[in-house]
Protein backbone atom coordinates (compact mmCIF):
# COMPACT_ATOMS: atom_id res chain seq x y z
CA UNK A 1 0.00 0.00 0.00
CA UNK A 2 1.28 3.43 -0.96
CA UNK A 3 0.24 6.56 0.96
CA UNK A 4 0.13 9.89 -0.86
CA UNK A 5 2.06 12.75 0.75
CA UNK A 6 2.76 15.29 -1.98
CA UNK A 7 5.93 17.35 -2.12
CA UNK A 8 6.00 20.66 -4.00
CA UNK A 9 9.67 20.09 -4.86
CA UNK A 10 9.38 18.86 -8.43
CA UNK A 11 9.11 20.08 -12.00
CA UNK A 12 8.86 18.77 -15.55
CA UNK A 13 11.51 16.35 -16.78
CA UNK A 14 14.03 17.95 -19.15
CA UNK A 15 15.53 16.71 -22.39
CA UNK A 16 19.25 15.88 -22.39
CA UNK A 17 21.33 15.88 -25.58
CA UNK A 18 18.21 16.90 -27.44
CA UNK A 19 16.43 13.64 -26.66
CA UNK A 20 12.97 13.23 -25.18
CA UNK A 21 13.27 12.38 -21.46
CA UNK A 22 13.16 8.65 -20.84
CA UNK A 23 12.95 7.20 -17.33
CA UNK A 24 15.71 4.60 -17.48
CA UNK A 25 17.47 4.88 -14.09
CA UNK A 26 16.51 4.05 -10.50
CA UNK A 27 18.46 5.74 -7.70
CA UNK A 28 18.32 4.52 -4.11
CA UNK A 29 19.27 6.79 -1.20
CA UNK A 30 19.13 6.69 2.56
CA UNK A 31 17.62 9.66 4.37
CA UNK A 32 20.45 10.22 6.87
CA UNK A 33 17.89 11.69 9.29
CA UNK A 34 15.93 10.55 12.35
CA UNK A 35 13.09 10.07 12.89
CA UNK A 36 11.42 9.32 9.56
CA UNK A 37 8.78 12.05 9.91
CA UNK A 38 11.58 14.63 10.02
CA UNK A 39 12.95 13.35 6.72
CA UNK A 40 9.46 13.32 5.23
CA UNK A 41 8.88 16.93 6.30
CA UNK A 42 12.23 17.99 4.85
CA UNK A 43 11.55 16.29 1.52
CA UNK A 44 8.20 18.11 1.39
CA UNK A 45 9.39 21.55 2.51
CA UNK A 46 9.81 24.25 -0.16
CA UNK A 47 12.77 25.48 1.88
CA UNK A 48 14.77 22.29 1.34
CA UNK A 49 14.62 22.21 -2.48
CA UNK A 50 15.02 18.42 -2.33
CA UNK A 51 12.56 15.57 -2.78
CA UNK A 52 12.20 12.01 -4.02
CA UNK A 53 9.46 10.05 -5.69
CA UNK A 54 9.10 7.69 -2.72
CA UNK A 55 10.06 7.47 0.95
CA UNK A 56 10.13 4.17 2.85
CA UNK A 57 9.91 3.99 6.62
CA UNK A 58 11.71 1.27 8.58
CA UNK A 59 8.36 -0.43 9.26
CA UNK A 60 7.70 -0.79 5.53
CA UNK A 61 5.36 2.19 5.14
CA UNK A 62 5.66 3.75 1.67
CA UNK A 63 4.86 7.37 0.86
CA UNK A 64 4.63 8.73 -2.67
CA UNK A 65 5.96 12.28 -2.58
CA UNK A 66 6.27 13.02 -6.30
CA UNK A 67 4.44 11.47 -9.24
CA UNK A 68 6.70 9.28 -11.37
CA UNK A 69 5.92 11.39 -14.43
CA UNK A 70 7.52 14.41 -12.74
CA UNK A 71 11.13 15.30 -12.01
CA UNK A 72 11.94 14.91 -8.31
CA UNK A 73 15.02 16.67 -6.95
CA UNK A 74 17.06 13.85 -5.42
CA UNK A 75 20.19 13.17 -7.47
CA UNK A 76 21.93 16.54 -7.38
CA UNK A 77 25.30 17.06 -9.03
CA UNK A 78 26.71 13.84 -10.44
CA UNK A 79 26.91 11.59 -13.47
CA UNK A 80 26.17 8.06 -14.57
CA UNK A 81 27.11 6.62 -17.97
CA UNK A 82 27.93 10.14 -19.14
CA UNK A 83 24.54 11.53 -18.19
CA UNK A 84 24.46 14.53 -15.86
CA UNK A 85 20.83 15.50 -15.32
CA UNK A 86 19.94 12.26 -13.53
CA UNK A 87 16.83 13.85 -12.04
CA UNK A 88 15.26 14.03 -15.50
CA UNK A 89 15.79 10.35 -16.31
CA UNK A 90 15.39 8.65 -12.95
CA UNK A 91 13.07 7.56 -10.18
CA UNK A 92 14.43 8.41 -6.73
CA UNK A 93 13.68 6.36 -3.62
CA UNK A 94 14.64 7.50 -0.12
CA UNK A 95 14.98 4.68 2.41
CA UNK A 96 14.75 5.78 6.03
CA UNK A 97 18.00 5.15 7.91
CA UNK A 98 19.92 7.36 10.38
CA UNK A 99 22.94 7.26 8.08
CA UNK A 100 26.59 7.44 8.98
CA UNK A 101 26.22 10.67 10.96
CA UNK A 102 23.43 9.50 13.28
CA UNK A 103 23.97 5.80 13.94
CA UNK A 104 24.06 3.90 10.66
CA UNK A 105 22.42 0.50 11.07
CA UNK A 106 21.20 -2.48 9.03
CA UNK A 107 18.01 -2.01 7.05
CA UNK A 108 15.09 -3.99 8.57
CA UNK A 109 13.75 -6.98 6.64
CA UNK A 110 10.25 -5.50 6.39
CA UNK A 111 11.66 -2.30 4.96
CA UNK A 112 13.66 -4.18 2.32
CA UNK A 113 10.67 -6.37 1.46
CA UNK A 114 8.60 -3.23 0.85
CA UNK A 115 11.44 -1.71 -1.17
CA UNK A 116 11.72 -4.77 -3.40
CA UNK A 117 8.00 -4.72 -4.07
CA UNK A 118 8.12 -1.00 -4.88
CA UNK A 119 11.17 -1.38 -7.15
CA UNK A 120 9.60 -4.23 -9.06
CA UNK A 121 6.61 -2.02 -9.78
CA UNK A 122 8.90 0.79 -10.98
CA UNK A 123 10.81 -1.62 -13.22
CA UNK A 124 7.54 -2.90 -14.69
CA UNK A 125 6.52 0.64 -15.60
CA UNK A 126 9.79 1.93 -17.04
CA UNK A 127 12.63 0.64 -19.29
CA UNK A 128 15.25 0.48 -16.53
CA UNK A 129 17.97 -2.15 -17.11
CA UNK A 130 19.71 -3.78 -14.12
CA UNK A 131 22.89 -1.77 -14.73
CA UNK A 132 20.94 1.45 -14.14
CA UNK A 133 19.72 0.50 -10.66
CA UNK A 134 22.24 2.48 -8.63
CA UNK A 135 22.95 4.10 -5.29
CA UNK A 136 23.44 7.81 -4.69
CA UNK A 137 27.14 7.16 -4.11
CA UNK A 138 27.47 5.58 -7.57
CA UNK A 139 26.51 8.80 -9.35
CA UNK A 140 28.12 11.21 -6.85
CA UNK A 141 31.08 9.36 -5.27
CA UNK A 142 32.83 12.53 -4.10
CA UNK A 143 29.74 13.84 -2.29
CA UNK A 144 27.70 10.87 -1.13
CA UNK A 145 28.18 7.46 0.48
CA UNK A 146 24.55 6.36 0.67
CA UNK A 147 22.85 3.96 0.84
CA UNK A 148 26.12 2.62 2.21
CA UNK A 149 27.93 -0.62 2.86
CA UNK A 150 25.08 -2.16 4.92
CA UNK A 151 22.55 -1.87 2.12
CA UNK A 152 21.59 -5.38 0.86
CA UNK A 153 22.30 -5.05 -2.85
CA UNK A 154 22.72 -8.81 -3.19
CA UNK A 155 19.23 -9.42 -1.80
CA UNK A 156 17.74 -6.91 -4.22
CA UNK A 157 19.55 -8.48 -7.18
CA UNK A 158 18.33 -11.92 -6.19
CA UNK A 159 14.81 -10.47 -6.34
CA UNK A 160 15.42 -9.06 -9.82
CA UNK A 161 16.41 -5.53 -8.85
CA UNK A 162 19.89 -4.43 -9.97
CA UNK A 163 23.19 -6.26 -10.45
CA UNK A 164 25.28 -8.49 -8.21
CA UNK A 165 27.63 -11.41 -8.69
CA UNK A 166 29.96 -13.54 -6.60
CA UNK A 167 31.28 -15.36 -9.68
CA UNK A 168 34.66 -13.69 -9.90
CA UNK A 169 36.77 -13.89 -13.03
CA UNK A 170 40.35 -12.90 -13.74
CA UNK A 171 41.49 -9.66 -12.07
CA UNK A 172 41.46 -6.55 -14.24
CA UNK A 173 45.00 -5.21 -14.76
CA UNK A 174 45.57 -2.08 -12.67
CA UNK A 175 46.01 0.26 -15.69
CA UNK A 176 42.51 -0.71 -16.87
CA UNK A 177 40.70 0.03 -13.61
CA UNK A 178 39.59 3.53 -14.64
CA UNK A 179 38.37 2.50 -18.08
CA UNK A 180 36.52 -0.47 -16.59
CA UNK A 181 34.79 1.76 -14.05
CA UNK A 182 33.86 4.13 -16.88
CA UNK A 183 32.39 1.26 -18.89
CA UNK A 184 30.24 0.23 -15.93
CA UNK A 185 28.92 3.78 -15.61
CA UNK A 186 31.10 5.61 -13.08
CA UNK A 187 32.56 9.06 -13.76
CA UNK A 188 36.33 8.79 -13.30
CA UNK A 189 37.07 11.99 -15.25
CA UNK A 190 35.22 14.14 -12.72
CA UNK A 191 36.33 12.35 -9.55
CA UNK A 192 39.47 11.11 -7.83
CA UNK A 193 40.04 7.49 -8.87
CA UNK A 194 40.39 6.18 -5.31
CA UNK A 195 37.05 7.81 -4.42
CA UNK A 196 35.35 6.09 -7.35
CA UNK A 197 36.93 2.75 -6.44
CA UNK A 198 35.63 3.17 -2.90
CA UNK A 199 32.11 3.84 -4.24
CA UNK A 200 32.32 0.69 -6.36
CA UNK A 201 33.51 -1.27 -3.31
CA UNK A 202 30.68 -0.01 -1.08
CA UNK A 203 28.30 -1.32 -3.71
CA UNK A 204 29.94 -4.57 -4.80
CA UNK A 205 32.52 -5.38 -2.09
CA UNK A 206 31.16 -3.81 1.12
CA UNK A 207 33.52 -5.65 3.47
CA UNK A 208 36.37 -3.36 2.36
CA UNK A 209 35.92 0.03 0.71
CA UNK A 210 39.39 1.49 1.19
CA UNK A 211 39.70 2.75 -2.39
CA UNK A 212 42.56 0.38 -3.23
CA UNK A 213 42.37 -1.63 -6.45
CA UNK A 214 43.48 -4.89 -4.84
CA UNK A 215 43.05 -8.32 -6.41
CA UNK A 216 39.53 -8.96 -5.15
CA UNK A 217 38.36 -5.51 -6.19
CA UNK A 218 39.79 -6.01 -9.68
CA UNK A 219 38.15 -9.43 -9.89
CA UNK A 220 34.80 -7.93 -8.94
CA UNK A 221 35.32 -5.15 -11.48
CA UNK A 222 35.86 -7.79 -14.16
CA UNK A 223 32.77 -9.74 -13.10
CA UNK A 224 30.47 -6.70 -13.02
CA UNK A 225 31.92 -5.43 -16.30
CA UNK A 226 31.03 -8.78 -17.88
CA UNK A 227 27.45 -8.54 -16.57
CA UNK A 228 27.14 -4.99 -17.90
CA UNK A 229 28.53 -5.98 -21.31
CA UNK A 230 25.99 -8.81 -21.52
CA UNK A 231 23.03 -6.72 -20.39
CA UNK A 232 20.88 -4.56 -22.65
CA UNK A 233 21.59 -0.83 -22.79
CA UNK A 234 17.94 -0.35 -21.85
CA UNK A 235 15.23 -2.66 -20.60
Tag the structure with descriptive keywords.
about 240 residues, alpha/beta, Lysozyme-like, two-stranded antiparallel ribbon, 8 strands, globular
How does this model look, in words?
The structure is a single chain. 32% of the residues lie in helices and 12% in strands. It is built from eight helices and eight strands. It has helices at residues 36-43, 86-89, 109-125, 136-139, 153-158, 177-184, 193-204, 215-230, and strands at 2-4, 10-11, 25-30, 54-56, 62-64, 71-72, 90-95, 133-135. The longest helix is centred in the middle third of the chain and has 17 residues, at 109-125. The chain is globular, with a radius of gyration of 17 Å. The relative contact order is 0.15.
End-to-end distance: 26 Å
CATH architecture designation of the domain at 2-163: 3-Layer(aba) Sandwich
Return the CATH topology of the domain at 2-163.
Answer: Lysozyme-like
Radius of gyration: 17 Å
Portion of residues in beta strands equals: 5-15%
The CATH class of the domain at 2-163 turns out to be: Alpha Beta
Q: What is the CATH superfamily of the domain at 2-163?
A: Peptidoglycan recognition protein-like
Mind summarizing the main beta sheet? 6 strands, mixed
Oligomer: single chain
Shape: globular
Average per-residue pLDDT, rounded, comes to 95
The run of helices and strands is EEEHEEEHEHEHHHHH
Which structural category do the helix and sheet elements fall into?
Answer: alpha/beta
Task: Give the tally of β-strands.
Answer: 8
Strand arrangement across the biggest beta sheet:
1-5-4-7-3-8
How much helical structure, as a percent, in the residues?
25-40%
- Specify the number of helices: 8
Show unreliable segments. none
Amino acid sequence: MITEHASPNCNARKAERGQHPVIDTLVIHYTGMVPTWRARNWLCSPESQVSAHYLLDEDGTVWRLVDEADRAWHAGVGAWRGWHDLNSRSIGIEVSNPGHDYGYRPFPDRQIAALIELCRGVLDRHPIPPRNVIGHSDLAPARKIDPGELFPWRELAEAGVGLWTDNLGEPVPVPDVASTLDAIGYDTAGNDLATVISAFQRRFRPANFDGEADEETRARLAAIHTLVAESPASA
